[in-house]
Design brief:
Blueprint (H helix, E strand, L loop, with lengths): L6 H15 L5 H50 L17 E5 L2 E15 L2 E13 L5 H11 L1 E8 L10
Antiparallel strand pairs: 1-2, 2-3, 3-4
Length: 165
């Protein structure tokens, strides 16, 4: 015998079917969302690493500039004919330590504008490069981006041959 269902019972059955189809996220959807969030988080983490390394390089460059300026001031305070200002090619670096960091200082002094065998102008070039504590490949990059070169010209305190006293 077939039983006739009432409207109330058919409404209950329909609501059960609707509830079963709206059970929530599946495990696959959740896993895909987690993978996407991980990719985004790794991208943000790499940006933080990049900004920190740039900040360190900027600090190296600032300290390199301070070392170069200090070295240049030492040459400016020396008399023009002093032995410290003799012409030198500057192939051997001097290693200095400032603020717990090592720097190599390359100095080149070139004489020019000789009058009566005496140089009247000296060009002083000071290049400072930070010494990297990292891998060999990163050392060249760090010293390249963190290096500073200053050039100064000094002249003798003498009157030129075409000027009258």
């Amino acid at each position: 015998m077939l039983r006739k269902t009432s409207d109330r019972e058919s409404a209950k059955m329909t609501s059960r079917v609707d509830q079963n189809s709206e059970a929530g996220f599946s495990i696959l959807e959740t896993a895909i969302a987690l993978v996407l969030m991980t990719i985004v988080a790794l991208g943000a983490a790499s940006l933080f690493y990049y900004s920190i390394s740039n900040t360190v390089t900027t600090g190296d460059r600032d300290l390199s500039m301070a070392v170069a300026q200090q070295t240049m001031e030492q040459f400016r305070n020396v008399d023009f004919l002093d032995a410290a200002l003799t012409e030198a090619p500057g192939t051997t670096p001097v290693t200095l330590t400032r603020a717990g960091r090592q720097y190599q200082v390359y100095t080149t002094i070139a004489d020019s504008n000789a009058i009566n065998g005496q140089a009247t102008t000296k060009t002083i070039t000071v290049r400072v490069a930070p010494v990297s504590d990292m891998a060999s490949w990163s050392g060249s990059i760090t010293s390249y981006f963190g290096s500073v070169t200053l050039v100064d010209q000094r002249s003798a305190l003498s009157v030129g041959p075409n000027r009258a006293l």
